[in-house]
Amino acid sequence: MADVERTLVTLPSPTMPVRAHGSFPCQGVYHRRAGTSPSTALIATHYQADFSTHYLAELMAARGFGFLGWNTRYLGDDSHFVLEQAVIDIGVGVRWLREEAGVEQVVLLGNSGGASLMGAYQSQAVEPNLPATPGLRLPDAVNDLVPADLFISLCAHPGRPEVLTAWLDPSVIDENDPLSCDPDLDMYNAANGPPYAPDFVERYRAAQVARNEHISEWCLSEMERLGAAAAWDRVFSVHRAWADLRFLDLSLDPSDREVGCYGPEPRMSNYGGWGLAMACTLRSWLSMWSLSHSQCRSAPHLRRIKQPSLVLNATADRGIYPTDAQAIYDALGSSDKGLESIDADHYLENPPGAREQCADLLAAWLAAHA
């Protein structure tokens, strides 16, 4: 592999200066082949995961492309996530690529949950549309974003509200009791499956949507209650969010995946202490997870993306399915778009060589769009 040069990039945001203890809200690592100035560079960002040393960064740099693994102020802290602030921070990275790194063609790489985030960024950059998160004012800087030139969706969920709702356990009776359970809606009750009958699947999915809507309604009423007492916000927990029927029933949305989820055994994960939306503020729920309020849903944003786009799906992914990739592809507004598959798991760790295959595929597509 060619020598890869890494540059630490740390910058303030238009809506957040350097913190008092000295850290910058926007941080990342720029990868490039040593001694080169790439004309095309990718930028990858997630809602809260650290993408500064993304697994594709060195592989793409070795192939002659720049790669900025970029983090917003919400690195490791999606409990306080606000979408409009996150896209402003992404804009800082895009501007740095154009104005400091001398990149002519910027490529948004939306990997996993990051695809809906990058889709929201590009959508806002080409056609400002984001409303303010309830209880907040929309910053001026959110209407001053620089669009990217290309868009890539890699092993991606259709949106944060969608993936959470598909994973929510609808058997939860009491949101304050992680053990409360309606056995008639419990996917881990052997009497219900797997395999799961079509009528159970229908009732289950409807109950998942109802649970998401119930939490959203509670957030709004709780904001009113707190506001009346001059309080700003609060943290709460969302229990049991490892309960997608597809984890155990491979006949639902069939693919090359094995039984299971991204964590340990699904039921253990479901009753464990980690996962999506485990800790939220009222505003972060409404901004990120709510079906009724969140703008972190890709479909409304993808239709505004007219730039050339590519969707890559991993056929053995345990948490993202062929229908997800197809939905993202169908929603994209671009007339120049492609849909490809890689025989691999979610992180392209297996089989060996899957990451190199992905990098080659991306490099060929980027070369064709230079």
Low-pLDDT parts are: none
Q: Given the helix and strand composition, which structural class is it?
A: alpha/beta
The Cα radius of gyration reads 21 Å
- End-to-end C-alpha gap: 23 Å
Q: Mean of the pLDDT scores?
A: 96
Major sheet, described briefly? 8 strands, mixed
Order of helices and strands: EEEHEHEHEHHEHEHHEHEH
Share in helix: 25-40%
For CATH, the homologous superfamily of the largest domain is named as Alpha/Beta hydrolase fold, catalytic domain
Percent of sequence in beta strands = 15-25%
SS field, number of helical segments: 10
Q: Give the tally of β-strands.
A: 10
Number of domains: 2
Strand neighbour order, sheet with most strands: 1-2-4-3-5-6-9-10
CATH topology heading of the largest domain: Rossmann fold
CATH class of the largest domain: Alpha Beta
Overall, the morphology is: globular
The CATH architecture of the largest domain can be named as 3-Layer(aba) Sandwich
